[in-house]
Structure prediction request, 749 residues.
Amino acid sequence: MRLGVVVQRYGAEINGGAELHARYIAERLSRHAEVEVFTTCARDYVTWENALPAGVSQVNGITVHRFPVTAPRDVRRFAAMSDLVFTREHSVADELSWLDSEGPTSPALVRAVAAARDRFDWFLFFSYRYYHAYHGVRAAADRAILVPTAERDAAVGLSIFGPIFRGVRALMFNSFEERAMLQHAAGTQRLPGVVVGVGSDVPERTEPGRFRRKYGIDGRFALYVGRIDENKGCAELFEFFRRYARAARNGLQLVLIGKSILPIPDHPQIRHLGFLGDEDKFDAIAAAEVLIMPSYFESLSMVALEAWALGTPVLANGRCDVLKGQCLRSNAGLFYENYPEFAETLHAIATGPMLCEALGRNGRHYFRRHYAWPVIERKYLETFDRLAREPRNATALEPLPGFFARRRRTLPPAADVLARIPSGPVTR
Amino acid sequence: MADFTVRASSVDVEQIMRQIRSRIREKRGVDYTEEQIQELARVKLERFLDPKGVRSDLLERFRQLPADLPPTYDFDDKTLFTSTNPLVRVIRRLLNPFLKLLFSPNALNQVLHRQALINRYLLERAEREALVYEVLHNLVVEVTRSTIEVKNMKMRVESIASRLEFNERRARALEAVVQYRSDAHPDARHDDRRREGREEEASGAVDPITGGESLRTRRRRRRRGRRSGAAFAGGEGGEAAAVDAGSRNTGDNGAEDAPRGADDAAANGSGDDRAASAAPASDDRETSSAEARGQEPDAPAPHSDGRGTADVPPGSSTSES
Prediction:
């Protein structure tokens, strides 16, 4: 079996959620199939500037084909187009312009996928909202499997993505909430849709003591791992934590791991360690009392899964349906929606060793049952088998509207479409 | 206070979250919905809470004319026929009778004159309305501020009342202990042991927050830990602490003779705690909730600030005692 993985960025040093997800899947599936990756030369997800050489290279034993991006993202144009399609009545042509302005615009990549179509049994497209996925799926629809990595943002409400969601052979979701959202948004019920997610290479043994010694951390602490950014809910986390620290004098410290875009508050109980390697990261997670996930929008939090794998409870932002749903389904984490809930839940975890232990145990079990690599690999392989038994033309991609219809500004704002999609966790 | 149902084998996150929310509601006192809280948060509270926010130049503003209002005009019986050119004025005056044959310019003059007066009146009224609105706004601000203050005062009164009640009970309990010591009765030992047994049983229940060992057990352990910690500290201080601990143990024996009258004082404390001295027994009760939260005895609950007032939206309860 030959598999093509198509993703916007790819590389050992690229740690973005969907990109890392794609790399993990490519590397794992390479044990069962011949895997090649099609990607761009971009390294930066904001500008998409060509930073890596075009051509064929190897990353961790996987063949990678890189194609240049024709133009870096014009941030102003992208913002203007986003404003138009998300908040005003617009046309299909406007949405296509928005897609171009978002990038990474790489017609060469799409052409390569179209040319290589017959060489591969399946193409795995990651991240529905980018240029490569939209045009790539159109180029190889009969063997396209989409990993949407969709969050609850307004892009889901754009009309151009409906045919893409309905036109692929299968959808591999990260969560039940994502599946429910796309079923409402695009009517994907009849398509094979598997909730898979992604595993993680969690070490067998961790050394929390080593981490504490190395970074001079005494006492118990809550941990945040990820980009320290307002979009990730970190500003709210800082505000809540400062209030919590004021009230609970001997409460937990807050340790932050990751690149900071937001200024870190100067507080004696907040420590920022910067970006750490995997070993330190896993040791830190194992040493922490709780991992805090303050993000409002997540399609799947890998670090939360890693925490559960290591038996560390998670305290998640309850306004993120995916995280809340995972906490409820796993019984391995608490969640908050406002400051009093944040303080009470953190306090409950900080002072309840049995509660912590029970949550951690559930987390381990949840990870082993749903996110261990053998489980993930099996789900992918079963999907390939199932699709192989179906005729190639099982799904047909809906064509774009004609010249005039495409330019008729009758589509509702995408934000309004999104607002009509039911939200909330799937508790099952 | 709600208990978390945490067993060794299972944990139900949904239930824990329900309990946490009900506990928050209890702490708030006033049960605001999330929407109401959001609405309150959207209000610019500084305008409500800052008395300086009320405009001091209100009178001046009353006297000032707003610049952006459209100008009005004067209109009288000559306005229609006036002109800067004298010759034109004369011709118009000569032809005026002829004009009056065609229509009635006087009626037009009167109407337009009245309209000019009305315009002026409306302009003045518009200016006044803006100022009246300002006054009303400030009044509303003041009333809102006062309402919030009244609510806060109510909560503070409630808090003080509960503390007062607690202190009265504590005083009664202490008095009872003092009375007992003056004429101790050996039979009371059995009662005390029985009571201790009951407490031990009760302490087997799961702690509502920690889901683990009971508050009492942990407190007792901590006290012992402190004593032994001091004893192991070495040096003179350690020895002194050891001696002190020994003397307390002697006190423990004495405390086993505690009478029924001391039940109140010992209600939240184990026998040895109580025996250490009468006063610490009551301190225990005061600190128990704080210790259970893993804080210093004086530390407030997570929602409270240093003064013990709730760190929740206005109108919520502060009672922690």
